[in-house]
Write a structure and sequence with these properties.
InterPro entries: Dimeric_a/b-barrel, Monooxy_af470. The chain is α+β, with helices and mostly antiparallel strands. The protein has 6 helices and 11 strands. The protein has a 4-stranded antiparallel β-sheet. The protein has a 3-stranded antiparallel β-sheet with strand order 6-1-11, with no helix packed on it. Strands 7-10 form a two-stranded antiparallel ribbon. α1 packs antiparallel against α3.
């Protein structure tokens, strides 16, 4: 018998990658972390012994699918960059789902919240709130200025900010056109400014080394 391929490694980007947000034309900046970003956390919890079979779950779930589908279809105009979904259970076994999403601005989040797709399920919730005590909804919003965020992934499938995508606009040139295309946020972080946390924050790594009196081994031979 031959050795089977490890299915868990499918889609893994080996070595180090770091997420970066390009400008409105889809071009990456020369300095790291050069764009503002808003992070929107949307939580949903089922406090019911029937779990996903609890009353009104289907209605809420269908609305949730429609919301994220619309955001994906209307990007980049919607300001939605993408995100990841996480599931956990509390000590009593209740299921909680958390969607961590990334946006161009908080104004984009609010514009979507007051748009027709979200407004419809919002109105449903308000008109049925007495029947929905077993369902929990939560959200948090964080506005993060440029040079105040960074991330790195080692041997990971695209996730979180690394799972976002951006439209790189095409251009005209003599003899033809370059079409628009969607690009990943992930860049090589095995060398250069994206290799260190300080560099990914748009800072000088040496300042951090002096503060903590420590120079990472990777730089001792440079």
């Amino acid at each position: 018998m031959g050795i089977l391929r490890n299915p868990y490694l499918e889609g893994v980007t080996f070595d180090r990658t770091a997420p970066q947000i390009p400008d409105e034309d889809g071009n990456f900046h020369s300095d790291a972390g050069a764009e503002n970003i808003s992070v929107f956390l949307l939580g949903f919890k089922i406090n019911h012994p029937l779990g996903i079979l609890a009353p009104h779950i289907q209605t809420i779930n269908d609305a949730n699918i429609r919301m994220w589908k619309e955001l994906e279809e209307t990007a980049p105009e919607s300001g939605y960059y993408g995100g990841s979904e996480w599931t956990c259970r509390d000590p009593r076994g209740a299921v909680e789902v958390l969607t961590i999403s990334y946006w161009r601005s908080t104004e984009d989040v609010h514009r979507f919240a007051y748009g027709p797709v979200h407004r419809k399920i919002w109105d449903f919730w308000n008109s049925h709130h007495k029947e929905l005590n077993h369902l929990g909804i939560s959200h948090e919003i964080y506005e993060v200025p440029k040079h105040k965020w960074e991330g790195v992934y080692l041997n990971f499938q695209p996730t979180l900010l690394g799972a976002t995508s951006y439209l790189k606009k095409g251009d005209k040139f003599i003899g033809g056109n370059v079409d628009d295309k969607w690009i990943s946020s992930l860049l090589d972080a095995s060398k250069g400014k994206l290799r260190t946390s300080a560099g990914r924050l748009g800072r000088d790594p040496k300042e951090l080394y002096e503060t903590f009196n420590d120079t990472p081994k990777v730089y001792k031979d440079e």
